Amino acid sequence: MNKRENFFTVKGNQDYEFVLSRVQTELSSKLNNDNVSEFSSSDLKNEIIKIIQNSHIKCDYTDNIDELAERLYHDMSGWSFISRYDLLNKEGFEELNINAWNDVDIIINGEIKKTSYSFLSPQQAIDVHKKMLNVSNTLINERQPYALADLKNNVRIAVLMSPVVDKNIGIVSSIRKVESKTSTKESLIKYGSMTEEMLEFLEQATLYGVSMVFAGETGSGKTYISGYILSQAAKKRRTFTIEESSREWDFIIKDDNGKARNSVVHAKTYEQDNDKANSVDQNRLLEMALRLDPNIIGVGEMRSSEAYTACEASNTGHTVISTTHSESALDTPYRIMALAKKAYDFADATLLSMITKAFPIIVYCEKLANNKRKITEIAEVIGYKDGEVIVNTLWKYEVTENIYFEEETEYGTKTKVETKGSFIKMNNVSYKLAQKMLKKGATKEFITKYTGGEKICEN
User: Fold this and answer.
1) Phi and psi for 316 in degrees, rounded to 5?
2) What is the pLDDT of residue 279?
3) What pLDDT does 112 receive?
4) What is the largest CA-CA distance in the chain?
5) How many CB atoms lie within 10 A of CB 430?
6) Per-residue pLDDT at 181
7) Which of 291, 406, 426, 445 is deepest in the core (most CB within 10 A)?
8) CA 393-397-403 angle, 5° bins
9) Cβ-based neighbours of 408, under 8 Å, separated by 6 or more
10) pTM
């Protein structure tokens, strides 16, 4: 036992929050704005330990001085339990869902777990989130009680506070790790997101001029999968990506000297609360993209009127890859129509005719009962006729059974499910789509594979 542990062996009765306030006050009196930047994290922890020793502090939290100093440091200078347990770098970490200051869920390897993590109070939860948002100079307050931002290491955060949520809740947030850059063909096949044949088709269709929409519910994997498809196309085609508020995609390939080897431009929207006229939304970035001569435009998600601009971009010869929320592959064109109407309230028939030409392929993604993300349908949009969108299903995933069982975990007994099913090749691509890809450089051999050997060209 070292000297510090000899000195600090009996757990005291001082409340942790009282100790935190006391140490914080004493530390702030020793440090000032001029010298605090000179202190490293280890220097600050040592200063905290000195205060604990010199003030004979004994806390009800622990009888270990190093453990107490570590928690005090992260509550004062870090991100509370988030940085103390290094949650964002935890193996398999996907998402941290903070439902309230004292209600936290974590998703590890696709499994949602209720945790015992908690902030000290609603106010501390707000203060910690303000520190996190400060990484990207993003503000949140009662006048603007919501925020979207990038943190670091491909982590995105969405935050709500009072008056949007009840004051006693403190904060609501979702902190999500995005790994689109590190996804591989092997991982997509290994984890059953699609078959190798489906993946090859999507890669080649994007490369040879076919615009497509990845649709599905929140958390279905549409951003992850579309990001991989775009990353492969960006190796060979000039690509311009557009994302809202925060960056998830990173397709730039650099050599050992840090020089870019491919042609990629990444852009994100920029909102100014006090100057809406000079804010940069997705519509404005789409207009700029068309002037920068890209082969492929990646729109992170169609949520509003930019859907109309994205359709226009596709119908003027650009390959556009985007995502949106919808209930099914067939529902997707109607969902895009509803968004496009926010720009121009044209007749349904006019918009649907434009949309079905703009996006010939719809890739529908779902998270199944076992939390596995799969492409459950790839559909070719044939056209719009007599008030209906006509689609041709190329592949689908068919669920045959869900088997429930109990399993012991570190959080107690949990009910789990095993989902059984299979991918089915349904139909070949149309002559029209085959011709489109041939004109953009696809080989006859490749096209024949997806047309079932039917006539694809004439001499």
Assistant:
1) -110, 20
2) 80
3) 83
4) 92
5) 19
6) 46
7) 426
8) 155
9) 414
10) 0.75
What is the pLDDT, as a whole number, of residue 459?
33
- Of the CA atoms within 13 Å of residue 203, those in its CB half-sphere come to 17
Q: What is the pLDDT of residue 387?
A: 86
Q: What are phi and psi of 366, to 5 degrees?
A: -140, 150
Backbone angles phi, psi at 239, to 5 degrees: -125, 135
Task: Name residues of the chain where pLDDT drops below 70.
Answer: 1-12, 32-38, 153, 179-183, 245-246, 272-277, 409-412, 453-459
Q: What are the structure tokens assigned to 321, written together?
A: 């890859």
- Alpha-carbon distance 178 to 248, whole Å? 6
Select from 270, 222, 280, 212 the least CA-distant residue to 249.
222
Question: Who contacts 437 (Cβ-Cβ below 8 Å, separation ≥6)?
Answer: 204, 205, 208, 209, 210, 446, 447
Rounded Cα distance between 309 and 297, Å, is: 12
Q: How far is C-alpha 9 from the geometric centre of its chain's CA atoms?
A: 46
